[in-house]
Amino acid sequence: MDSLTPEHRSWNMSRIRSGNTKPERLVRSLLHRMGYRFRLHRRDLPGRPDIVLPGRRTVVLVHGCYWHRHPGCRFAYTPKSNVAFWQAKFDENVDRDIRQHGQLRDLGWHVITVWECETKNLDMLAERFFSEVPNLAPAPC
Fold this sequence. Notes:
The chain has 141 residues and is of the alpha+beta class. The protein is built from five helices and four strands, in the order H-H-E-E-E-H-H-E-H.
């Protein structure tokens, strides 16, 4: 049973941002400090990817562990109330993510998914970018 009234729950949910979230801003800041420039939310690409590195044909998707169901993550829990609704919502999100990843790859884009919990260790994330982004090397100082 939900401890909040339906009106208050609706108000809470309306406050959840879909773009420019804290994890997304952290990843953008890291890439910028590394010397790379990018575009945000390009409308001409499937799913409007969070970060686009056009010169490297790479997109970076920053996913919240809860909403996008990060496998094995403690933040990807399912609420105890209205389980059927939430499970359908989460399944829909995951299916859309898989579909959009496929569409981006079919268009020749390299897709990197960064999970919210991975933004806690930016040094490790920087190393991951160096290893996964094509032609990505440290920018000259």
